[in-house]
Amino acid sequence: MMNCNKTLTELKENVFSAEDNALAENECNSTIEAMSDWVANTKLYKKAGGILPGSVTIFFIDSTFKDMDGIEGVIDFGFRGNAKPYGLLCSDGKYRSGKIRFFLSKPIEVPGSFFQLTCEQKDSFYTGSGNEMTWLSGIISIENLDGMSLILKTDSLNVVDNFRNKISWSCNRTIRLIKDAGKGIWGDIYSVEGAAKGMNRDGEKFDVNIDEPLIKKMELNCSKTFIIGKLSIKNDVANKTILVNYDPYNNEACDNTAEAEINGKKTLFKVD
After folding, report:
1. Please, what is the end-to-end C-alpha distance for the chain in angstroms?
2. Residue 5 has pLDDT above 60, yes or no
3. pLDDT tens across 224-248, in order?
4. Which domain holds residue 23?
5. Helix (H) or strand (E) holding 181
6. Cα(15)–Cα(11) distance, rounded to whole angstroms?
7. Is a pLDDT exceeding 50 seen at residue 109?
8. Helix, strand, or coil here: 22?
9. Which residues of 28-38 are buried (b: 16+ CB within 10 A; e: fewer)?
10. Using CA atoms, how far apart are residues 28 and 107, in angstroms rounded to an integer?
């Protein structure tokens, strides 16, 4: 009986790491997608467009690249509200509320550009399905090294889910464009490679490696998470590895479903 209980505990802990990593990477990616889509849009200096709705309020601290020190400002999605759905609906299906501070060194499509998003605790930035909202604080950045790929980084991004579980997540990943649909990111297909690490809701550290590139399709009802890709997650304490498959049915469907496997046992979980 003791052995059975131990096995169940280890499975639970590793599934938590898989679910918490999926939540953190999902909300991090969708946030940088929405902001990158906006800064790549020709309406940059007029109003929001693309993924961000026109009702978003944008404050510029510096609105010109001509002074050679980049542009910066604040994007305000408004209050979270007291009734569901919480936040402001964006065209990628995500609801958002609170503020994000941004800095862009030069136009994002130019090699050498650096784009940084800062979510301060006082600004209460939330993102999610409208029913379940995730609170983010920390810094997310992307750098266009060569015009062919982007480097995505976070350092101890704080993530608090709808149930007040606290997660910490860092990553160093490479984003490559597979299909370019034109200005902005909407309609694009891209891949993600690299590594991540974090601390799950139980305070246990884990390391993540992408074994097969994660593929994202930026289309309606499909952009919430990856449609293909595999990664492995190792819990430091349990010393067990969990395998995550974003296409468990081998059909590349936009079903927001991933599969976690440990010791030959599999379980499905939703990524919204």
Report:
1. 36
2. no
3. 899 999 999 999 887 889 999 999 9
4. 2-219
5. none
6. 6
7. yes
8. helix
9. bbbbbbbbbbb
10. 21
Pick from 128, 208, 139, 206: nearest CA to 161: 128
Joined tokens for residue 268: 């499905």
pLDDT tens column, 126-140: 999 999 999 999 999
Query: DSSP string spanning 120-164?
Result: -GGG-EEEESSSSEEEEEEEEEEEESSSSEEEEEEEEEEEE-TT-
Q: Which two tokens stand for residue 55?
A: 């009702």
Q: Which residue has the higher pLDDT, 183 or 205?
A: 205
CA-CA distance, 203 to 157, in Å (whole number)? 14
How many domains does the chain contain in total? 1
* DSSP-assigned beta bridge partners for residue 205: 199
Give a yes or no: residue 37 inside a domain. yes
What ranges make up the beta strands (E) of the chain?
Answer: 57-62, 71-76, 88-89, 95-97, 99-104, 114-119, 125-128, 133-144, 149-160, 166-179, 189-199, 205-217, 228-235, 241-245, 257-262, 265-270
Q: What is the pLDDT of residues 8-25, one digit of tens each?
A: 344 444 589 999 999 999
**Could you give the 3-state DSSP secondary structure of residue 257?**
strand
What's the rounded Cα separation, in Å, for the pair 139 and 87? 21
> Hey, what are 218's tokens?
């930026």
Q: Is the peptide bond before 85 cis (omega within 30 degrees of 0)?
A: yes
4-11 contacts at long range (C-beta below 8 A, 24 or more positions apart)? 7/263, 10/238, 10/240, 10/262, 11/262, 11/263, 11/265
Q: Which residue has the higher pLDDT, 5 or 151?
A: 151
Cα separation, 2 vs 14, whole angstroms: 19
The model's pTM is: 0.91
Q: Is the dihedral of CA 50, 147, 211, 206 positive or negative?
A: negative
7 falls within a domain: yes
